[in-house]
Amino acid sequence: MASSGRLASVIFPIAVLRSLRGKKTINLAPIGKSIQGDNDMQMKKTLRVTAALLLGISVSASAFALTPGSGTWVKETATYGTPTLKDAYVYVPKNSAPEVLVGKRALMLSLHGCGMTAPTSVIDKRFNWEATAEKYGMVVVAPTVPSGTSATRVAGGCWDWFGAAHNRNSRDAVPLLKLIDAIKARSNLDIDPNQIYVSGLSSGAGEAHVLGCSFPDYFAGVAPNAAPTLGAEAGDISVPPKRSAQQVVDTCRAINGNQFNTYFNTQIYAAVYGDKDYLVLPAHNVRNVEGMKQLYGATIDGGKASIDGGGSVQYWNDNKGQVRISDMVVAGMGHAWPAGPGATPNTAWVDSTRVNYPVYVTKFFFDNNLRVNKWKISCSVAVPNATSATVSASATAAAGATIASYKVALQGKTPVNDTAAGSGVSMSKTYTLGNGPYTGTVTAVDSKGAESEACVLPPFQVGALDPLYPPTNIQANGISSTAIKLTWTAAAGAVAYDVTRGSIVIHVTGTEATDSGLAPNQSYTYTVTAIDAGGRRASSGAVTGKTQPVTYTETVTATVTGHYAAGRLNVNQYLQLGAKYGYNASMTLYKCEGSWTNSSSCGPLQ
How crowded is residue 514: how many other Cβ atoms within 10 Å of its Cβ? Predict the structure, then answer.
């Protein structure tokens, strides 16, 4: 795609290229609609789709000091093959106080299309990442596709996105993940593994989608631009999609070996394409979005923003209200990366006249990342007397919100589930409680309905503790020739138990334990000790259990030599018994748990 290789349909007509290089700038207008969202890890939040969001005005990140980079594109010396990347460039922002999340840098992998290279098509403001990278402190990585063709890379100069036969250990995924790992490991960059994203144009979009599905544990966000349907073949891109949304789902899961699918619960997706793209038909992008909606469970309409001059952004939320998918259609744009105003002009396959997608998608990822905790909350507890405890907390919500309420949950003799414990920047509330140990949490909810992670209170005690008694009704029964199972009735207040036999201790939290590796038909003595949350211990008296005897399941009578020839005796046993009884002596052997012995009680050889 975007190539003059084996795909014959990838060259733009001159008139289309000229239209992409025009000077018209499309302004973005607000629509003022609220969209509810919930962070799967820590928060429910409301996204208001406004011009500020689309124009990339930061509302949630805070400035944080980081080691500045050079603010230039630096070529990597390694090639990370096989297959071998022709070259790769890394941009580390020079801004020492960017608007990062949780004090760490994000990383964006940016993949060009067919017939392009990183130095001629992406870096030096061609894809227009630089200003956005500086604002957010984001490291941008731009590799060039390996050269040549292969059994799977059917078009030279294209990323190897073709077909559905992908996995985590082959094709272009190998050098690209090695490249990311190498850059992520550079401690001076402070890259957050929860903020790694991938984007790309055309074949780069296809590869971005493949990477997002193969490595959902790596990529928190995926941004394909003019992408073929996941799993499509090279010749399918300019005709209606041949693959269904369900096939997109199934392929996305299969190519990570169905081993990393839980990471899709916190991955987000941002598609963008032109409505005049004749090379990769818009229907392919629509089909990918349909598939990702199913994969993420993001089928709830999250609102729509219009773009002045034509075009729109449709959001899709999951059933928790979390924003999961951005689906942007750029009116009048053909097959191109929407770099926006400020991009290097006259770059083939790049549109510098419409939306600045680097600004938009970076802000979309920062605002909606589901793997980063953007809240701050602290809590404490005090016990002023023998009948009460005072819980205190303070919280800071994401920008543009205030704390509407606090939730206090306490576990102990007097459980508490208070959903209106206070509001504002801090709260303090006293609860009347029964005596005993307690644990608990405090959660804040902001004015948009977003919920923080739970702040865990330190364990505390109110009043005097109830006495701790040993467990009762202890039973020790042999369940085999090598194991004894112990059961007992729980002790009030106990949270764990130690089962002791001599120097052997078995620690459990339930009311049973099994001691194994024992000798047959032997008696063993145990004590069971109850342990409470404060570490107090109460031990039972001794109780004895006995393993079951071993019984034989088969007998054979033969000479000692005959038993050896049949494999019932090894050479040492043969010599031992032959010397003692004679090699031609008749002897009955008993098979006991897979071994042979001349003892009818299944004892050792005599």
Answer: 14
| DSSP 8-state assignment for residue 282 | H
Task: Please say whether the structural domain 472-546 has been given the CATH code 3.40.50.150.
Answer: no
Residue found by looking up tokens 């001794």 in the block: 542
Rounded CA gap, 528 and 293, in Å? 53
Distance CA(31)–CA(223), nearest Å, equals 23
Question: CB-based contacts of 27: which residues, under 8 Å, 6+ apart?
Answer: 308, 309
Cα 564 to Cα 596: distance, rounded to the nearest angstrom: 11
Q: What is the pLDDT of residues 67-116, one digit of tens each?
A: 899 999 999 999 898 899 989 999 999 998 899 987 899 999 999 999 99
**Residues 176 and 167: beta-carbon distance below 8 Å:** no
Structure confidence by residue, pLDDT tens digits, 512-561: 999 999 988 999 999 999 998 888 999 999 999 999 988 889 999 999 99
Check: CB of residue 589 under 8 Å from CB of residue 563: yes
Strand segments (E) across 479-522? 483-489, 494-501, 504-508, 512-516
Provide the 10 A C-beta neighbour count for residue 286: 17
What is the per-residue pLDDT across 397-452, written as a single tens digit (0 to 9) for each? 765 678 999 999 999 999 999 999 999 999 999 999 999 889 999 999 888 777 88
**CA dist., res. 73 & res. 337, Å (int):** 19
**Which residue do the tokens 């000479």 mark?**
559
How far is 464 from 466, CA to CA, in rounded Å? 7
pLDDT tens for each residue of 290-345 = 999 999 999 999 999 987 667 899 999 998 888 999 999 999 999 999 999 999 99
Question: Strand, helix or coil at 323?
Answer: strand
Q: Is 131 helix (H, G, I), strand (E, B) or coil?
A: helix
Per-residue pLDDT at 25 exceeds 70: no
Residue positions counted in the chain: 606
Q: Within 13 A of 356's CA, how many CA atoms are on the CB side? A: 23
Domain 14-368, CATH homologous superfamily name and number: Alpha/Beta hydrolase fold, catalytic domain (3.40.50.1820)
For tokens 């078009």, name the residue.
Answer: 155
- What is the value of pTM for the model shown? 0.59
The answer to whether residues 129 and 121 touch, using CB atoms and an 8 Å cutoff, is no
Q: At a CB cut-off of 8 Å and minimum separation 6, what does 556 contact?
A: 563, 566, 568, 588, 589, 591, 596
β-strand partners of 591: 554, 596
Neighbours of 1 (CB within 10 A): 31
In the block, residue with structure tokens 């294209």: 158
CATH architecture of the domain 376-462 equals: Sandwich (2.60)
Q: What is the largest CA-CA distance in the chain?
A: 107
pLDDT score for 65: 61
